[in-house]
Amino acid sequence: MHSDANPTDANPTDASPAGNSPAGPFDDGLRFDDTGKVTLDHIYTQPDPHAYFSTLRTLGYHIPQLAKPFFSRLIDECRAQRRLPPTVLDIGCSYGINAALLRCDLTMDDLFERYGAQPSPARNVLLDRDRELVRAHRRSSGTRFIGLDASEPAVSYALAAGFLDEAVCADLEQRDPTEAERARLDGTDLVISTGCIGYVSERTLARVARATGERRPWMAHFVLRMFPFAPFAETLDELGYETVHVDGVFPQRRFASAQEQEQVLDTLASVGVDPRGLETEGWLYAQLHVSRPRGAAGRGANRPVFGQQPAGTLTGRRT
Ligand SMILES: C[S@@+](CC[C@H](N)C(=O)[O-])C[C@H]1O[C@@H](n2cnc3c(N)ncnc32)[C@H](O)[C@@H]1O
Protein backbone atom coordinates (compact mmCIF):
# COMPACT_ATOMS: atom_id res chain seq x y z
CA MET A 1 0.00 0.00 0.00
CA HIS A 2 1.49 3.32 -0.98
CA SER A 3 0.25 5.05 2.11
CA ASP A 4 1.62 5.91 5.48
CA ALA A 5 -1.92 6.69 6.53
CA ASN A 6 -3.24 3.25 7.26
CA PRO A 7 -4.60 2.15 10.58
CA THR A 8 -2.58 -0.74 11.85
CA ASP A 9 -5.31 -3.29 11.24
CA ALA A 10 -5.37 -2.67 7.51
CA ASN A 11 -5.44 -6.04 5.82
CA PRO A 12 -5.16 -5.74 2.07
CA THR A 13 -5.72 -8.76 -0.08
CA ASP A 14 -2.75 -10.32 -1.80
CA ALA A 15 -3.56 -8.24 -4.86
CA SER A 16 -0.30 -6.39 -4.56
CA PRO A 17 0.27 -3.65 -7.11
CA ALA A 18 3.94 -4.53 -7.43
CA GLY A 19 5.08 -6.27 -10.55
CA ASN A 20 1.86 -6.44 -12.53
CA SER A 21 1.80 -5.77 -16.20
CA PRO A 22 0.42 -2.33 -17.08
CA ALA A 23 -1.34 -3.96 -19.98
CA GLY A 24 -4.06 -5.43 -17.75
CA PRO A 25 -5.78 -8.80 -17.85
CA PHE A 26 -8.60 -8.10 -20.30
CA ASP A 27 -8.58 -8.39 -24.07
CA ASP A 28 -9.64 -5.72 -26.47
CA GLY A 29 -13.32 -5.22 -27.15
CA LEU A 30 -13.99 -3.37 -23.93
CA ARG A 31 -16.25 -0.33 -23.74
CA PHE A 32 -15.10 2.84 -22.01
CA ASP A 33 -16.86 5.79 -20.42
CA ASP A 34 -16.10 9.49 -20.91
CA THR A 35 -13.39 9.44 -18.26
CA GLY A 36 -11.50 6.67 -20.07
CA LYS A 37 -12.37 3.99 -17.53
CA VAL A 38 -13.72 0.65 -18.65
CA THR A 39 -17.52 0.36 -18.44
CA LEU A 40 -18.53 -2.35 -15.98
CA ASP A 41 -22.22 -1.41 -15.67
CA HIS A 42 -23.35 -4.92 -16.58
CA ILE A 43 -21.81 -6.42 -13.44
CA TYR A 44 -23.55 -3.84 -11.20
CA THR A 45 -27.04 -4.97 -12.20
CA GLN A 46 -27.06 -8.76 -11.97
CA PRO A 47 -29.51 -10.50 -9.61
CA ASP A 48 -26.65 -11.73 -7.41
CA PRO A 49 -23.00 -10.75 -6.77
CA HIS A 50 -21.35 -13.57 -8.76
CA ALA A 51 -20.42 -11.55 -11.87
CA TYR A 52 -19.37 -8.56 -9.76
CA PHE A 53 -16.84 -10.49 -7.70
CA SER A 54 -15.65 -12.77 -10.52
CA THR A 55 -14.85 -9.79 -12.71
CA LEU A 56 -13.36 -7.56 -10.05
CA ARG A 57 -11.22 -10.37 -8.68
CA THR A 58 -9.51 -10.49 -12.07
CA LEU A 59 -8.73 -6.81 -11.69
CA GLY A 60 -7.48 -7.12 -8.11
CA TYR A 61 -10.19 -4.72 -6.88
CA HIS A 62 -9.74 -4.32 -3.15
CA ILE A 63 -10.41 -0.73 -2.16
CA PRO A 64 -13.24 -1.74 0.26
CA GLN A 65 -10.67 -3.86 2.10
CA LEU A 66 -8.26 -0.93 2.41
CA ALA A 67 -11.12 1.35 3.46
CA LYS A 68 -12.45 -0.98 6.14
CA PRO A 69 -10.15 -0.01 9.03
CA PHE A 70 -10.72 3.70 8.34
CA PHE A 71 -14.47 3.26 8.30
CA SER A 72 -14.29 1.14 11.46
CA ARG A 73 -12.41 3.84 13.23
CA LEU A 74 -14.85 6.54 12.15
CA ILE A 75 -17.76 4.37 13.28
CA ASP A 76 -16.08 4.00 16.68
CA GLU A 77 -15.54 7.76 16.87
CA CYS A 78 -19.13 8.44 15.89
CA ARG A 79 -20.37 6.03 18.53
CA ALA A 80 -18.17 7.64 21.19
CA GLN A 81 -19.26 11.15 20.26
CA ARG A 82 -22.98 10.45 19.86
CA ARG A 83 -23.09 7.92 22.73
CA LEU A 84 -25.32 5.83 20.48
CA PRO A 85 -24.73 3.14 17.84
CA PRO A 86 -24.33 5.10 14.60
CA THR A 87 -26.23 4.81 11.35
CA VAL A 88 -23.92 4.46 8.36
CA LEU A 89 -24.98 5.27 4.79
CA ASP A 90 -22.93 3.65 2.00
CA ILE A 91 -23.30 5.54 -1.28
CA GLY A 92 -22.89 3.17 -4.23
CA CYS A 93 -23.36 0.24 -1.86
CA SER A 94 -23.85 -2.27 -4.68
CA TYR A 95 -24.50 -5.72 -3.13
CA GLY A 96 -23.86 -4.32 0.36
CA ILE A 97 -20.12 -4.77 0.12
CA ASN A 98 -18.81 -2.30 2.71
CA ALA A 99 -21.61 -3.31 5.08
CA ALA A 100 -20.76 -6.99 4.65
CA LEU A 101 -17.07 -6.37 5.40
CA LEU A 102 -17.82 -4.27 8.46
CA ARG A 103 -20.81 -6.13 9.84
CA CYS A 104 -19.54 -9.69 9.31
CA ASP A 105 -15.83 -8.96 9.73
CA LEU A 106 -15.06 -10.33 6.26
CA THR A 107 -12.24 -9.58 3.87
CA MET A 108 -12.49 -8.99 0.13
CA ASP A 109 -10.74 -12.33 -0.33
CA ASP A 110 -13.58 -13.94 1.66
CA LEU A 111 -16.09 -12.34 -0.72
CA PHE A 112 -14.13 -13.36 -3.83
CA GLU A 113 -14.18 -16.95 -2.54
CA ARG A 114 -17.79 -16.74 -1.43
CA TYR A 115 -19.21 -15.65 -4.76
CA GLY A 116 -16.56 -16.91 -7.17
CA ALA A 117 -17.55 -20.56 -7.57
CA GLN A 118 -18.03 -21.82 -11.15
CA PRO A 119 -20.79 -22.55 -11.85
CA SER A 120 -22.34 -20.17 -9.37
CA PRO A 121 -25.02 -21.48 -7.01
CA ALA A 122 -28.49 -20.04 -7.62
CA ARG A 123 -29.43 -16.69 -6.10
CA ASN A 124 -31.61 -18.23 -3.39
CA VAL A 125 -28.76 -20.54 -2.34
CA LEU A 126 -26.35 -17.59 -2.10
CA LEU A 127 -28.96 -15.64 -0.15
CA ASP A 128 -29.60 -18.44 2.34
CA ARG A 129 -25.87 -18.73 2.95
CA ASP A 130 -25.54 -14.97 3.41
CA ARG A 131 -28.47 -14.73 5.81
CA GLU A 132 -26.85 -17.42 7.91
CA LEU A 133 -23.58 -15.51 7.87
CA VAL A 134 -25.28 -12.29 8.96
CA ARG A 135 -27.07 -14.15 11.76
CA ALA A 136 -23.79 -15.70 12.92
CA HIS A 137 -22.10 -12.31 13.00
CA ARG A 138 -24.92 -10.41 14.60
CA ARG A 139 -23.03 -8.35 17.05
CA SER A 140 -24.23 -6.12 19.81
CA SER A 141 -22.55 -3.04 18.30
CA GLY A 142 -25.92 -1.93 16.99
CA THR A 143 -24.46 -0.07 14.00
CA ARG A 144 -27.14 0.29 11.32
CA PHE A 145 -26.25 0.18 7.64
CA ILE A 146 -28.24 1.94 4.95
CA GLY A 147 -27.33 1.62 1.28
CA LEU A 148 -27.87 4.00 -1.60
CA ASP A 149 -27.44 2.71 -5.12
CA ALA A 150 -29.04 3.19 -8.53
CA SER A 151 -29.02 -0.58 -9.16
CA GLU A 152 -32.28 -2.18 -8.06
CA PRO A 153 -31.00 -5.80 -8.31
CA ALA A 154 -27.92 -5.03 -6.21
CA VAL A 155 -29.85 -3.17 -3.52
CA SER A 156 -32.50 -5.91 -3.39
CA TYR A 157 -29.82 -8.54 -2.90
CA ALA A 158 -28.11 -6.56 -0.12
CA LEU A 159 -31.40 -6.10 1.73
CA ALA A 160 -32.50 -9.70 1.29
CA ALA A 161 -29.13 -10.98 2.52
CA GLY A 162 -29.35 -8.76 5.58
CA PHE A 163 -26.14 -6.84 4.87
CA LEU A 164 -28.23 -3.66 4.82
CA ASP A 165 -30.90 -2.66 7.32
CA GLU A 166 -32.47 -0.21 4.89
CA ALA A 167 -31.85 1.08 1.41
CA VAL A 168 -32.61 3.85 -0.99
CA CYS A 169 -32.58 2.76 -4.61
CA ALA A 170 -32.28 6.01 -6.51
CA ASP A 171 -30.15 8.07 -8.84
CA LEU A 172 -29.79 11.29 -6.88
CA GLU A 173 -27.76 12.81 -9.69
CA GLN A 174 -31.05 13.21 -11.52
CA ARG A 175 -33.52 14.26 -8.87
CA ASP A 176 -34.15 15.15 -5.22
CA PRO A 177 -34.98 12.34 -2.82
CA THR A 178 -38.67 11.70 -2.31
CA GLU A 179 -40.22 12.26 1.13
CA ALA A 180 -39.99 8.53 1.85
CA GLU A 181 -36.32 8.44 0.80
CA ARG A 182 -35.60 11.55 2.84
CA ALA A 183 -37.11 9.88 5.90
CA ARG A 184 -34.83 6.88 5.39
CA LEU A 185 -31.73 9.07 5.03
CA ASP A 186 -32.62 11.27 7.99
CA GLY A 187 -30.58 10.42 11.07
CA THR A 188 -27.50 9.20 9.15
CA ASP A 189 -24.38 9.74 11.24
CA LEU A 190 -21.68 8.71 8.77
CA VAL A 191 -21.66 8.60 4.96
CA ILE A 192 -19.07 6.34 3.34
CA SER A 193 -18.21 5.35 -0.22
CA THR A 194 -15.70 3.30 -2.17
CA GLY A 195 -15.48 3.25 -5.95
CA CYS A 196 -18.55 5.42 -6.40
CA ILE A 197 -17.41 9.04 -6.71
CA GLY A 198 -17.12 9.63 -10.43
CA TYR A 199 -20.40 7.81 -10.96
CA VAL A 200 -21.91 10.30 -8.53
CA SER A 201 -20.97 13.94 -8.31
CA GLU A 202 -21.26 16.56 -5.61
CA ARG A 203 -24.97 16.77 -6.50
CA THR A 204 -25.64 13.42 -4.84
CA LEU A 205 -23.56 14.29 -1.79
CA ALA A 206 -25.39 17.60 -1.35
CA ARG A 207 -28.80 15.95 -1.71
CA VAL A 208 -27.83 13.32 0.84
CA ALA A 209 -26.47 15.93 3.26
CA ARG A 210 -29.62 18.04 2.98
CA ALA A 211 -31.84 15.00 3.49
CA THR A 212 -30.23 14.00 6.75
CA GLY A 213 -31.78 16.68 8.91
CA GLU A 214 -30.14 19.49 10.85
CA ARG A 215 -27.30 17.38 12.19
CA ARG A 216 -25.10 16.80 9.17
CA PRO A 217 -23.39 13.40 8.95
CA TRP A 218 -19.64 12.93 8.73
CA MET A 219 -18.40 11.73 5.36
CA ALA A 220 -15.48 9.56 4.23
CA HIS A 221 -14.99 8.91 0.52
CA PHE A 222 -12.29 6.87 -1.21
CA VAL A 223 -11.96 8.58 -4.58
CA LEU A 224 -9.82 7.79 -7.61
CA ARG A 225 -7.14 10.42 -8.21
CA MET A 226 -8.55 11.04 -11.68
CA PHE A 227 -11.61 12.66 -10.04
CA PRO A 228 -10.61 15.97 -8.43
CA PHE A 229 -12.27 16.35 -5.05
CA ALA A 230 -12.24 20.19 -5.12
CA PRO A 231 -15.84 20.54 -6.45
CA PHE A 232 -17.03 18.14 -3.74
CA ALA A 233 -15.12 20.00 -1.02
CA GLU A 234 -16.51 23.34 -2.23
CA THR A 235 -20.09 22.09 -2.21
CA LEU A 236 -19.61 20.54 1.21
CA ASP A 237 -17.99 23.75 2.45
CA GLU A 238 -21.18 25.63 1.50
CA LEU A 239 -23.10 23.08 3.54
CA GLY A 240 -20.92 23.78 6.59
CA TYR A 241 -18.30 21.08 6.18
CA GLU A 242 -14.56 21.08 6.56
CA THR A 243 -12.67 18.55 4.41
CA VAL A 244 -9.38 16.86 5.17
CA HIS A 245 -7.42 14.95 2.53
CA VAL A 246 -5.78 12.05 4.29
CA ASP A 247 -2.16 11.63 3.29
CA GLY A 248 -1.27 8.60 1.23
CA VAL A 249 -2.70 6.82 -1.78
CA PHE A 250 -4.53 3.49 -1.99
CA PRO A 251 -4.29 1.03 -4.89
CA GLN A 252 -7.83 0.38 -6.09
CA ARG A 253 -7.48 -2.08 -8.97
CA ARG A 254 -5.42 -2.98 -11.98
CA PHE A 255 -6.16 -1.38 -15.31
CA ALA A 256 -8.38 -3.61 -17.42
CA SER A 257 -6.27 -3.05 -20.54
CA ALA A 258 -3.45 -0.97 -21.99
CA GLN A 259 -6.07 1.22 -23.64
CA GLU A 260 -7.77 1.96 -20.33
CA GLN A 261 -4.44 2.86 -18.77
CA GLU A 262 -3.55 5.20 -21.63
CA GLN A 263 -6.94 6.93 -21.44
CA VAL A 264 -6.82 7.31 -17.67
CA LEU A 265 -3.28 8.72 -17.90
CA ASP A 266 -4.70 11.32 -20.31
CA THR A 267 -7.48 12.16 -17.86
CA LEU A 268 -4.96 12.47 -15.02
CA ALA A 269 -2.84 14.82 -17.15
CA SER A 270 -5.91 16.94 -17.92
CA VAL A 271 -6.58 17.42 -14.20
CA GLY A 272 -2.92 18.04 -13.36
CA VAL A 273 -2.18 14.82 -11.44
CA ASP A 274 1.31 13.35 -11.81
CA PRO A 275 0.94 9.59 -12.41
CA ARG A 276 4.62 8.72 -12.26
CA GLY A 277 5.34 5.75 -9.98
CA LEU A 278 1.63 5.12 -9.48
CA GLU A 279 -0.84 4.84 -12.38
CA THR A 280 2.10 4.48 -14.79
CA GLU A 281 2.81 1.16 -13.06
CA GLY A 282 -0.52 -0.42 -13.93
CA TRP A 283 -2.88 0.40 -11.06
CA LEU A 284 -5.56 2.99 -10.42
CA TYR A 285 -5.07 4.81 -7.11
CA ALA A 286 -7.56 6.41 -4.73
CA GLN A 287 -7.33 8.98 -1.98
CA LEU A 288 -9.37 9.31 1.19
CA HIS A 289 -11.26 12.54 1.81
CA VAL A 290 -12.93 13.04 5.17
CA SER A 291 -15.50 15.81 5.61
CA ARG A 292 -17.06 16.76 8.91
CA PRO A 293 -19.30 19.64 9.93
CA ARG A 294 -17.21 22.58 11.03
CA GLY A 295 -16.95 22.43 14.78
CA ALA A 296 -17.24 18.65 14.83
CA ALA A 297 -13.97 18.28 12.99
CA GLY A 298 -12.39 21.56 13.83
CA ARG A 299 -11.76 21.52 17.55
CA GLY A 300 -8.05 22.27 17.41
CA ALA A 301 -6.47 22.79 14.02
CA ASN A 302 -3.88 20.12 14.75
CA ARG A 303 -6.37 17.46 15.74
CA PRO A 304 -5.51 14.32 13.78
CA VAL A 305 -8.11 13.23 11.27
CA PHE A 306 -9.03 10.08 13.15
CA GLY A 307 -8.42 11.34 16.65
CA GLN A 308 -5.44 10.10 18.54
CA GLN A 309 -3.21 8.16 16.18
CA PRO A 310 0.07 6.35 16.51
CA ALA A 311 2.85 8.77 15.64
CA GLY A 312 3.40 9.30 11.96
CA THR A 313 0.38 7.41 10.66
CA LEU A 314 -2.61 9.61 10.01
CA THR A 315 -2.15 13.14 8.91
CA GLY A 316 -4.14 15.25 6.52
CA ARG A 317 -4.37 18.48 4.59
CA ARG A 318 -7.33 20.74 5.14
CA THR A 319 -9.05 22.66 2.39
C1 LIG B 1 -17.51 0.31 -8.69
S1 LIG B 1 -19.09 0.00 -7.99
C2 LIG B 1 -18.60 0.19 -6.26
C3 LIG B 1 -19.40 -0.68 -5.37
C4 LIG B 1 -18.88 -0.80 -3.95
N1 LIG B 1 -18.96 0.46 -3.27
C5 LIG B 1 -17.49 -1.33 -3.93
O1 LIG B 1 -16.55 -0.57 -3.69
O2 LIG B 1 -17.29 -2.53 -4.16
C6 LIG B 1 -20.00 1.48 -8.31
C7 LIG B 1 -21.42 1.46 -7.79
O3 LIG B 1 -22.01 2.74 -8.02
C8 LIG B 1 -23.35 2.56 -8.39
N2 LIG B 1 -23.83 3.76 -9.08
C9 LIG B 1 -23.56 4.18 -10.33
N3 LIG B 1 -24.19 5.35 -10.58
C10 LIG B 1 -24.88 5.65 -9.44
C11 LIG B 1 -25.73 6.73 -9.09
N4 LIG B 1 -25.99 7.73 -9.93
N5 LIG B 1 -26.27 6.74 -7.85
C12 LIG B 1 -26.01 5.72 -6.98
N6 LIG B 1 -25.21 4.68 -7.28
C13 LIG B 1 -24.66 4.65 -8.48
C14 LIG B 1 -23.32 1.32 -9.27
O4 LIG B 1 -24.61 0.75 -9.41
C15 LIG B 1 -22.34 0.46 -8.51
O5 LIG B 1 -23.01 -0.34 -7.57
Structure notes:
This protein is α/β, with parallel strands linked by helices and 319 residues long. The chain has one domain: Vaccinia Virus protein VP39 (Rossmann fold). Helix content is 35%, strand content 17%. The protein has eleven helices and eight strands. The protein has an eight-stranded mixed β-sheet with strand order 3-2-1-4-5-7-6-8, with helices on both faces. Helix 9 (202-211) links the parallel strand 4 (190-194) and strand 5 (218-224). Helix 3 (63-82) packs across helix 4. The longest helix has 20 residues, at 63-82. Residues 44, 63-64, 92, 94, 97, 148-151, 154, 171, 173, 194-196, 199-200, 204 line the site of S-adenosylmethionine.
Give keywords.
35% helix, single chain, binds S-adenosylmethionine, 319 residues, 8-stranded mixed β-sheet, alpha/beta, Rossmann fold, 17% strand, globular
Q: How is this fold's topology laid out?
A:
Elements: H1 41-44, H2 50-58, H3 63-82, E1 87-91, H4 97-103, H5 108-115, H6 123-136, E2 144-149, H7 152-161, E3 166-169, H8 179-185, E4 190-194, H9 202-211, E5 218-224, H10 230-238, E6 241-254, H11 258-270, E7 283-293, E8 316-318
Parallel strand pairs: 1-2, 1-4, 2-3, 4-5
Antiparallel strand pairs: 5-7, 6-7, 6-8
Helix pairs in contact: 3-4, 9-10
Residues 44, 63-64, 92, 94, 97, 148-151, 154, 171, 173, 194-196, 199-200, 204 line the site of S-adenosylmethionine.
Brief summary of the model shown:
The protein is built from 11 helices and 8 strands. With 319 residues, it is an alpha/beta fold.
